[in-house]
Amino acid sequence: MQIIKLNATDSTNTYLRELSVNKELEDYTVVMATHQTNGRGQMGTNWQTQAGKNLTVSVFKDVSWLGVTNHFFISMVVSLSLAKTLNEIMVMNVKIKWPNDILSDNYKLGGILIENIIKNNSLKASVIGVGLNVNQTVFDNLPQASSIQNITGRHFSLEEILNMLVENLIFYFNELQFKHAFIELKQEYDDLLFRIHKPSTFKDKKGKLVAGYIHGTDANGNLLLLMENQVIKSYGFKELELLY
User: Fold this and answer.
1) pTM of the prediction?
2) 35 in Cβ contact with 131 (< 8 Å)
């Protein structure tokens, strides 16, 4: 694993993606920043973090062996790798808040930003961005945010957690690539969904409230909701916001 350490950058994903254009990168090349000035989340949202307190990294992964229709399995693998890492350091009740947030109980610990490199309608590589709250203890105006230190009472080495995360990424990607464990990994992912099989309330893009039971995800990564009339409806990214 090659680690590129930066004191500051606007976005580790942007840095790594531009680097991949200019040179051939080995699998699991990591860009790690002490301070990220313009961290990005899904759909252009910002990721705010205190310098030096949290894990802000991007990982390069060759996914040329994965069909483009299976792209959501990359997100599944990353989510499962983060959950396994957190379980290994005794963070309890880890859940995945669809599509890309990592929670402990009701508190957000991290987020994921996957940016795939596609050429001629084929997946070539993926730039996997991870923001994980590790040692930050105060989150102004973010009542649902917390950190590993707040939950466990322990201060952690960022590099220790990074090494564990990469080991778990290797494990799950190997399960996908060499054991073709698509069904098993999807089941493991769905089982970890926040509020799975529980009555939940959402807000759609028009501000309308939507009620239903989280039933799982489909092959494209859309959220499946079991509605009151027993019909299962599918919703894409940012079409619904789960209300706590």
Assistant:
1) 0.94
2) no
